Amino acid sequence: MANVAFGQYYPASSFTHKCDPRTKILFLIGFIVAIFMAKNFYALGACALVFTVVACFSKIPFKSLLKSVKAVLILLVFTVVFNLFFQKEGEVVFEWEFIKLTKEGLYATAFLAVRLFLLVLTSSLLTLTTTPVSLTDGLESLLTPLKWIKFPVHELALVMSIALRFIPILTDETARIMNAQKARGADFENGKLTERIKAVVPILIPLLVSAFRRADELGDAMDARCYSGSTNRTKYKKLTYTWRDLIAGLLLTMLIVAVIVLKAYFPVII
Questions:
Q1: Which end of the chain, C or N, has fewer beta carbons within 10 A?
Q2: Domain residue spans of the chain
Q3: Does pTM top 0.85 for this prediction?
Q4: In this structure, what are the phi and psi dihedrals at residue 101, rounded to the nearest 5 degrees?
Q5: For 21-77, what is each residue's pLDDT tens digit?
């Protein structure tokens, strides 16, 4: 679990890191829209190409990006396998008792796997190239219109930022608790499934206690510093758009146009 990269910031001086956090958030939303608009492998390939370009400009090792997939690997595998065996329509390529694999099911499964893979990697790229503080400022700036209806925009952005910051902290805490339990003779790898589940309980209880203790300490620290939400709050660093954000916007626009064209002129895979 210590190798999980989602929610962690990778410091570097790159084109992607220097983009405005608002641009990166909007780019992620637009990229997700483009992925779900894609209905064939050609359009999905265009999305993968754009992601590769952005990842190269971020100067983040591809190994670090792949670590983010570990956090949701079980969910990805379950979704793909579930879709593979329950797609019954189309030309049958393999059949054994109640198991039936179809050509269309294989295509749909491969398409879904690539789509989910890109979604996870792109979301992780946002947190790897954006500090929690910048992410909070970007979210607050984008949600500013909601302040007109008295919506607590600053508080919502702060909660999301703290949640992202707690991911690596709780991951390290889990690793320490597991090592302590192993030193006392706990076995998390062998035995029946029920025994392995019971072995996890001594980890969850101390982890929950530690999470509540850290949250309480954070609240006391904010109170000691007279934190009062967004009331009369100023910012040391002002968010400004630069030429990098213009290039990112043009790249996203080209991607969406390419997906629409490829969707119209090539057959639908699923």
A1: N
A2: 1-152+236-270, 167-229
A3: no
A4: -110, 130
A5: 999 999 999 999 999 988 888 888 899 999 999 988 988 888 777 777 776 677 777
